[in-house]
Specification:
Layout: H1 3-13, E1 23-26, E2 38-41, E3 45-52, E4 62-64, H2 78-89, E5 94-100, E6 103-108, E7 115-117, H3 118-123, H4 128-139
Parallel strand pairs: 3-5
Antiparallel strand pairs: 1-2, 2-3, 4-7, 5-6
Helix pairs in contact: 1-4
């Protein structure tokens, strides 16, 4: 996990209240790849894979979380894609949150399989507080 990605996750978590009935766990297992970055548990479970990107300056530049761009590798590895798709097919709540310096975009379920222009990405940006609220809502 990259430093900007870790910093982004921490900045979202700062907006989550400490609650007895809400739990979160960062996942890192060097022997079992693909597992989502964070598991959240309340009345319902939620698994989120986080990524961090520098949003392209040109509004028509395509952001593709599977194929990547000329400047970056694929945002989601093959193992991450498989893990998220399988958990979603089982009926579990999964999401991908793509962070940037200006906020993040929430991709619910397997909606990360599409492509997005930089302009569409910017239009969908949520603040870190809004992302935290969405996490809590999905877990309650």
């Amino acid at each position: 996990m990259s430093q900007p990605e870790n910093t982004f996750i921490s900045s979202v978590h700062r907006h989550l209240p400490e609650m007895n009935d809400f739990y979160r766990m960062k996942n890192h297992n060097q022997y079992n790849g693909g597992i989502a970055d964070v598991w959240y548990s309340g009345k319902k479970d939620l698994w989120i894979e986080y990524k961090f990107i520098v949003v392209p300056k040109r509004n028509d530049t395509v952001i593709d979380l599977i194929a990547g761009t000329a400047k970056s590798k694929p945002a989601l590895s093959r193992l991450q894609q498989e893990w998220l798709s399988k958990r979603h097919a089982e009926g579990r709540q999964v999401a991908v949150v793509v962070g940037s310096k200006d906020g993040g975009v929430w991709f619910d379920g397997v909606s990360w399989k599409g492509t997005y222009t930089a302009d569409a990405f910017k239009s969908a940006l949520l603040t870190r507080a809004e992302l935290a609220k969405l996490i809590l809502t999905r877990c309650s």
